[in-house]
Design a protein that fits this description.
With 320 residues, this protein is of the alpha+beta class. It has four domains: 1-92, no CATH class; 95-133, no CATH class; 136-238, Trna Endonuclease, Chain: A, domain 1; 249-315, no CATH class. It has ten helices and five strands. Strands 1-2-3-4-5 form a five-stranded mixed beta sheet, with helices on both faces. The radius of gyration is 28 Å and the shape is extended.
Length: 320
């Protein structure tokens, strides 16, 4: 009976999803067509600016009388902008709601807009998550702070437009220690002293720690800002689930980047070794190849040392 119930529940769930998609698609196509007609009608007017203002007001009054709420002048301007920003109707994604698209209209950069569309679909962001992501502006990766001739690096820095504050993120692989927490507190204080500008709210620090199969989220704010953090900041910061997903993506990015560098390094060495072993090079050319191998190894050793890898020569393939 449990299998029987599971099958029935799956049918109902899929039916609900398909119904939602159908309704949502209809809403998007309707607003797109309305926006198209508004734009085309405006373009036919002699004084476009004044005519456009009049037509929005006229439509709002008449549509509200006939169809009720949802057709204010502000709403119609969104609909008009919807058509201008997304001029190809069949390219609209029915996985996204009208509210998703309203937030996307605020993103001016086309590449950034496409990024948010894809991320919303791939990660199944609800409208609140999308809004929070859009309002968190990426500032830097591996941001360097310097004090007393020492350099410190923050993994990720964002600026949240809603909270009007910087968000510092430190990524940790392994057990979270008191030193990690103290380090983030130190970063927050440094940022407050060196980077925070007039009008910014207090800086937030977030530690994302991957320990075995668990991911731990630790927040850091200066002591006199804890009440502000609890009452306001938590409403607009990413949830722990979203932060966990971000850590997983960052971890995959680092691993992919490292694998790419490693493959590229080994392929270069293999190519040079092959040229030497074939015996077709002159004495000078062979010497040049060996020097090139030594230079590649030197750069790779330096890169690995800077990134915390072992400096042992046994980590590297033989020269020839």
């Amino acid at each position: 009976m449990s299998i029987f119930y599971t099958e029935i529940a799956a049918i109902i769930t899929n039916g609900q999803k398909n119904t939602y998609k159908t309704i949502n698609k209809g809403v998007l196509e309707t607003y797109w067509l309305v926006g198209k007609h508004i734009v085309e009608e405006e373009q036919n007017g002699k004084n476009k600016a004044e005519y456009g203002k009049n037509i929005i007001g006229f439509l709002s009054e008449k549509l509200t009388q006939e169809f009720g709420k949802g057709y204010s002048e502000a709403s119609l301007r969104y609909i008009r902008q919807f058509y201008i920003i997304f001029p190809i109707c069949h390219a609209l994604r029915d996985e996204l709601s009208w509210t998703h698209y309203r937030f996307l209209l605020k993103v001016e950069n086309p590449k950034a807009r496409t990024f948010y569309i894809n991320e919303s679909i791939d990660n199944q962001w609800d409208t609140r998550s999308l809004e929070r992501q859009i309002n968190s502006f990426y500032v830097a990766r591996q941001k360097r702070l310097s004090a007393d001739n020492e350099h410190f690096y923050i993994d990720l820095v964002f600026y949240n437009y809603i909270l009007k504050c910087f968000v510092l993120i430190d990524l940790k692989m392994g057990k979270l220690t008191h030193q990690d927490i103290g380090q983030m507190d130190f970063y927050v204080r440094m940022w407050e002293d060196l980077c925070k500008t007039e009008g910014d709210n207090p800086t937030i620090g977030i530690i994302l720690c991957s320990e075995k199969n668990d991911i731990i989220v630790k927040y850091s704010v200066l002591e006199n800002n804890t009440q502000l953090f609890a009452s306001k900041y938590m409403l607009y910061l990413p949830t722990e689930t979203e932060l966990m997903n971000e850590l997983s993506r960052e971890k995959n990015f680092i691993e992919t980047e490292e694998n790419f560098k490693r493959i590229s390094y080994e392929e270069k060495l293999e190519k040079l070794r092959k040229e030497i072993s074939e015996g077709r090079l002159g004495e000078k050319e062979e010497l040049d190849r060996k020097r090139e191998i030594l230079e590649i190894r030197r750069k790779e050793r330096l890169r690995r040392y800077n990134e915390g890898f072992s400096r042992d020569d046994n980590d590297y393939p033989s020269l020839v």
